[in-house]
Each structure stands twice: as C-alpha cells, then as structure tokens.
Amino acid sequence: MSKKTAGHITWHLKGCEDADEVIHLAGEVIHLAGSEAWKHFDETHPTFAEEPRNVRLGLCADGFNPFGCFATPYSCWPIFLTVYNLPPELCMKSEHIFLAMTIVGPKNPGKNVDVMLRPLIDEFKELWTNGVETYDSFRQQNFIMKATLL
Fold this sequence. Notes:
6 helices, two-stranded antiparallel ribbon, four-stranded mixed sheet
C-alpha cells in the first residue's frame, strides 16, 4: 500500500472537523463509518477496534454469462472486496476494490456458493484470529493487521 493510501486507512478515527458532514449528508449515512453497524461492531469487538489500522471489508459478488447469451450454459462470478476504512471519496474507486476470487463453471454456484468461498473464508478466519504482520508505510513500522467482513 502506498504511503498516501496508508495515511487514509485510519481516516474513520481522525475526528476531522468535516468528518461528520462527510459521513452524514442531509441526515443520511453515506459511509459505513457513520453507521450503527460500525459502532456496534466496535462495542462488540473492542480489541479489534483499538487498532485503527485493522481492516474492515465488504464482499461483493455478481454473476454473469461471459458469452452474452443464455443458450450457452456457463457462469462467471467475480468476488470483490472493498476497503471500508478509506474515506468515501476513495473506498469505491477501482484502485481500492480487489478481485479476491472468481467462481466459474457450467452453471451458477447456487446453494454451493459456500463450498466455492471456503478458501476465502479460511483466509478471513486467519486474518481475524491471528492477523498478519504488515508494514505501515505511513508510520514506517510493522504491526499485526487483522481484518473482518462487515
């Protein structure tokens, strides 16, 4: 991660003067950091929340037929991860959305999607339980980073 991006990863804690305006616009939550779910997660998992560089991710999936016609039985399901720690103007930009895996086959995964996602689930269990040593290029130090799906 670049030094500039690494500096933004703790944006949700910074208490900027305009942070409340950015998180809430016209009375509506426009970023997950301002939501009740985020606050509840912090209260429920205080050890995770005390390290502001721990990453909160969103998982997105949508299947399509890569051949463009439904007569050809084939399915492609990209699985994307979004980084919710980043400010609203960055978290949904393509350079901060990661392709975690692709599920392909002669038909959509349907009820077997959990089997297909097993490798990703195992990685998330490891990131939640033990974390991984990571270099913070903004603070120029190593730390144990953990991650979760919100």
